[in-house]
Write a structure and sequence with these properties.
alpha/beta; seven-stranded mixed sheet; two-stranded antiparallel ribbon; 13 helices
Amino acid sequence: MTPKRIGFVGFDGVTASHLVGPADTFSAAALDDGYSNRIPCYQIHVIGLSPECCRAESGMIFTPEETFEAISEWDTIVVPGGKGLRKPEVCERIADWVLMNANQTRRIACIGTGIYGLAPTGLLDGREVTTHWRYASDVARRFPNLRVDPRRSLVKDGAFYTSSGLSAAVDLSLALIEEDYGRHVALATAQEIVTPPINRNGQQGVPKPAVFNSQPADRFAELVAWILRHLHEDLSVNNLARRACMSPSHFNRAFKSVFGSTPADFVENLRLNEAKRRLSTARSTVYSVAESVGFSNPDAFRRAFHRRYGAKPRSPLNGFDSNSLAIHSNGKVAAGSQTPEECLARESH
């Protein structure tokens, strides 16, 4: 799976919690590979106006990984708030950069006063938005085409998301995670980062992420773990779509939008990763491992393994590799230091 790239705009005078809180939330989102390993859902990057470090309002220092001059593709752009946005030159540079990247970005969000960096683009004109209650009147005055409602903590209008402050920013992150990976992943993330409230019985409840009345990809929430437990089975698009209760064509499109690759490529990568792991264990052969992860054809396994890792699959058992295997006419596998031709010649005597 290719993690979705999220870029947080960094600038001098940024509110550190607007950057750190949501970034930590996205970083906590992960899928279970079925073997207690985490598959990260997102890659988090700080994008600076320049390569220089930016100092937050609190004095914290952030080092940008990329700058506005770099040409990169982003799934999501997040504009945090902060007093640095009161400087016209900062607002103008952020607005120009966001506008330049808007067509190549799936969605854009701002936190609290981060709306001052997004509103000048005109992308929010005619849309419902929210912001910190203290600045709502000023935002409405400066940008009269916006429909500002500070009573709402989160607002989604099209591909644009606004939130009223830090606590709402964490809820915003959870809602975006739910849109991308389903409610199961969002709830698991919420439980990782949020301290559940104490109920009247003195017990902690389970936090629930906010929602935008969206239609999250809940059917994919546990799909990866299920695939890994059934690598030896038929994992064709038709069978996976049937399990997800979707038509094959719709499943193929939805899967690619969530995971960034086709179902066939995704399954092959999982099979090869698991095959590599199993080859490192004792008493395993290349053929047995290939068959156990769903490659019924050893030649196809060798080609796929070499294409992925640039080397032939090797087993610790007698130190042989894929070239020392031969499938005889009786269905048995001969292994050792001989070539397939030698093995077959010996069997014929």
